[in-house]
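Bench notes, afternoon.
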Amino acid sequence: MTLLLGAIVWSALEPGTRALLEPAGISEANFETWVQAHRQTTAERLREGTAEHIGYFVMQSRRLHSSEPLTPLTEARAFHGRLSARDQKRFLDGHAVEGAFSEPLELRLEAFLGGKLVDERHRLLRDMAERLGWPAKHAVQAALRFPLLRATASEPAEVEDLYQQRGLSGDPYPPSMKAVEAGVALLDASPKTVLLAGPGIELGSRFGVDDSKPVVSPQPEALHRLVRPRVFDCVDIREEVTKSLQKSPCRALTADIAVDRPGTGTYALIVATNVLAYLTEIELAVAFSNLKQALEPGGCLLHNDARFAVRVAGEAAGLPVKTLQAVPLGAVNGREQVDRAVLHCRAR
């Protein structure tokens, strides 16, 4: 079975998808140019995501340094507050600036760069830092920037825009398996062929670093136990993720679901939680065409992005919403957390 058919071309898009893209200025004449621009932007966002992983590990790993873990938002506010007004704006606009970190953060960064490797996560992230090639302080600044921007985004549209521009990190969010379980329970039959998009890797996020966890994402194992598929594939945009899954129950490949075609008529179920939120409306439209074609007749796409744009992209591609269900995740810091199980199904 072929896991990847290659890059998408205009003629392979669903007719409804083409009709959705044309008013936005995307046509057969410039579609390949758009694809190349998307890949360039994605490459930069992947570098930003690498920097975020490095920064969050530096700030929060207990194994890295004997001091107490640092809170990214607290460090971000302090760093931002020490900058000039001009550099504050440049920092928030995505530029590296000259500024002082707190002493505990400086000590942790020194331990990350020159200290003894404390575990596999540290080794992997130091290798990633060397390949990234950025000054280490600039990488940490990328990890400080997003929490500050997220804390000041008050309107839903601001939050959506922020996620569509932020770095593409690989941190999984295990609580979202509750949404997956809820969605699988709505299926007419247990799927025998499954694709998991964006399983991620446990390198650390702004929510914390758990040094006791293995690097490998828990989602492939959890999904495999849940549905016991005959064919189980994984795709992720980050190469570190697919390399980490060599001993997992899924066959893994590095691919971008927005512009790479994951098979034709292959899967009964595609799971893509915490993935679609990073796509713009145009990227969503193209991704839905790809995903629809990867499903067998009657197959379903399960995700947790409740944006109206997702509904529009799905209907255009012939993959309408079948069910949207709220999934309680419990209380965090006294506030109830809710996820979504969104199910789109292809006609039989």
